[in-house]
Amino acid sequence: MWADLARRTNRLVPNVSVAAVADALDYLCLAQLYLHDNPLLARPLTPADIKPRPAGHWGVCPPVNRMLAALGPLQAAVPDGYELRVLHGAGHAGPSALAHAYLTGQLGRAHPGLSQNEAGLRELISGFPRADIGGEITPMIPGHLHTGGQLGPALAIGQGTVLDAPHRLSVVLIGDGECETGTTAASWLATRALHGTGDHGTVLPVVLLNGLRMGGPSVLSTLSRAELTAYFNGLGHQPVHSDGLDIGQLRQALAEALGAAQPLGIPGPSSVLVLALDKGHGAPARLAGTPAVHKTPLRDPAGVPAEFDALADWLASYQPDQLLTPGGRPRPHLLPALPLPRSEPGGLPAPRGCVAASAQVAAHAAGRPFAQVVPKVLRARAEQGLFRVFSPDELASNRLDLTDEHGRPVPWAVEVLNEELCHAWAQGYTETGRHALVVTYEAFAPITLSLIQQQLKHRSVRRHVGLAPLPSLVYLMTSLGWHNTFTHQNPSLTTALLAGNDPSLHVLTPADSARAAAALTFALRKLDRCTIVVAGKHTHLHHPLETVDEELRYGIAIWPHLTHPGGEPDLILASAGDLPAEALTILARRLRAERPGVRLRYVHVHDLTVLAEDGTRPIALDPDAFARHFGTRAPIVLATSGHPADIHALLGRRHPGPRLTVLGYRDPGRPLSQEHLRRFCGLDDAGLWKLATTLTDTSKEIPA
To answer: CA-CA distance, 455 to 470, in Å (whole number)?
Structure first.
């Protein structure tokens, strides 16, 4: 379908229109970098028209602009029910995205001050790099998808966007420097992990072979045409080459690449379009082929006469008055190659009944082990459709049996031994309105930290713009360090994410397997969150479920079966996680049996973010609620499955001070048995008993 559409638009839309769009994009990019005034050179250029400190990136713009121009007729002709997305690997192409959104009119619809008129054109050019929208690609630029500032995941994210979406074509623009990243390198081959997992759309990777990365020649550019072809053939891709200079040849190459493109998951080679165009094409000859073209090739044209003359000639070479009207609109001969603005797809309905549904799951799961209840939650969610589980080869190890009656993996669960790919696939899937879960070992989840942080930044901007909420990013971290080898002990993902203060972050620490099933159900139903569920696969102790509703709704609850009613207690025990809940429950039972005069309050923290300072997180406890749970005088022993520093940092200025003792994972610096690790961290029975009795004996000696 896509190849036929490309061939038809090649016949109907003249190359001169497409070439004019490419020139207009180039000119607008260059003008954004350099011009302060005189946007269409309506009068002779003067140094006063030039920005005193040009900023931005020129190098990637020319090849990106040619691809956007070549795709324009195709985008304009996409029939109802189909979708073509452009995904940028290089966020540096911000000037291109802004220029393209301006020419199509989408930018003015989103930001009226940047409409297609004289004032809007002047603001587009003089206001770059924009403090309000950004000088790189963000969700505030309509029509362009770029989901974070990290190089590498674009191809895999593009693959995620077309999973279970046979109506969608995602064109992924990948810099040749980006091809040096491990994530991109793995993405070429990883499509084989998706064979037979559903009916998918198509990804067309476009490698922008410009010869340079920021500091020097790219590795990919050292390959000859024959070597490059052999490289991609070996990875299962059929390269189609274009030099990018001849627009007609580029459009033919695009049609040929689309003709050879296979829907994702179909065995056999699929195409990749290799667009060879020198980085910073169009820059003055003396700078061509040098790293200077990565950003602004001419550093001070307002102050250096030779640079001023070079810039004046460069800008004039595009004949901007032949591309845009004095009123800032595209000339008529550009219009056939420009797509019309399209409405954003409607948002997802707000979820309802999340607490009730999740509590019901907990009730059905009561007393049953992790391996029985969590897979059941995932299967139930998969029956609702448009749901995917991604895991780096760890489902069986994590006691998640997601096989069919014949022992074969279910098609909606994909395993590949690469954490970054799993995240990127899930990111592409959720960014296009579907629900996904990443399951991984606690120790290896930090591999994807930067990707998660970049996605959170992307989501934060979406919320700022008022775009519709998307499905949550959900991680299930199991195979916890408490039951693993020394090399597999690393709970630092939550530490780093909590430090970021993103309000959408929730770290769920359920006390047992029934609560883990409920937490996962809850997390997968909510929208626009990043939820990390920390749940060990070895949970043995099960707790009464009378407070599950409260834990799900408010993130914290006092457990009445271990709490003395009324008044300030002598000791407060607080758990965050299943192993801490087990350890402190055993302690509470022993205290009640052997020290009946000690009044206890037991608190379970189901969501770590409730501990944050009031007003800094959506469900942070207000002062009165904090006092109801943690008292005002009694010593507190809080045990967490993660780092103790997480708790101290969350509490911030309302830290209870010397009343609080936090126990959690401490790196022992050497291999220890599970028993000795708990003892080293103070979570063994004897250590907890000594701590509790010391605290209660001491507190009784101090006058109230």
So the answer is: 12
Reported confidence tier of residue 212, pLDDT bands at 50, 70, 90: confident
Query: In terms of pTM, does the model score above 0.90?
Result: yes
Backbone angles phi, psi at 692, to 5 degrees: -65, -45
CA distance 556 to 537: 22
Cβ-Cβ contacts under 8 Å for 455 (sequence gap 6 or more): 147, 148, 427, 473, 530
Whole-number pLDDT of residue 700: 59
Show the tokens assigned to 230.
């052999």
Contacts of 641 (CB under 8 A, 6+ apart): 480, 482, 491, 509, 534, 536, 576, 577, 578, 579, 580, 664, 665
Residue with tokens 């009694």: 634
Per-residue pLDDT tens for 69-113? 999 999 999 999 999 999 999 768 999 999 999 999 999 999 999
CA end-to-end span of the chain = 79
Phi-psi region of 280 (alpha: psi -120 to 50; beta: other; left: phi over 0): left
Instruction: Provide the residue count of the chain.
Output: 704
DSSP SS3 for 19? helix
What span, in angstroms and rounded, lies between the C-alpha atoms of 534 and 443?
11
With a CB cutoff of 8 Å and minimum separation 6, the contacts of 365 are: 372, 373, 376, 513, 514, 517, 518
Instruction: Provide the 3-class DSSP secondary structure of residue 81.
Output: coil
Question: Judging by beta carbons within 10 Å of its beta carbon (0-12, 13-18, 19+), is residue 189 exposed, middle or buried?
Answer: middle
pLDDT of residue 90: 73
Complete DSSP assignment for 205-242: EEEEE-SB-SSSB-SGGGS-HHHHHHHHHHTTEEEEEE
Tokens of 97: 């995205």
Three-state secondary structure string covering 253-270: HHHHHHHHCCECCCCCCE
Q: Any idea what DSSP says for residue 446?
A: G
Identify the CA nearest to 475 among candidates 509, 447, 436: 436
For the segment 169-197, the average pLDDT, to the nearest whole number, is 94
Q: Are 643 and 491 in contact (CB under 8 A)?
A: yes
Gap between the Cα atoms of 129 and 54, Å rounded? 9
The residue with tokens 């980006």 is 178
Lowest mean pLDDT: which of 29-43, 138-152, 457-471, 543-557? Answer: 138-152
Pairing of strands 413-415, 387-391: parallel
Strands laid side by side in the 83-88 sheet: 83-88, 168-175, 202-209, 270-276, 237-242
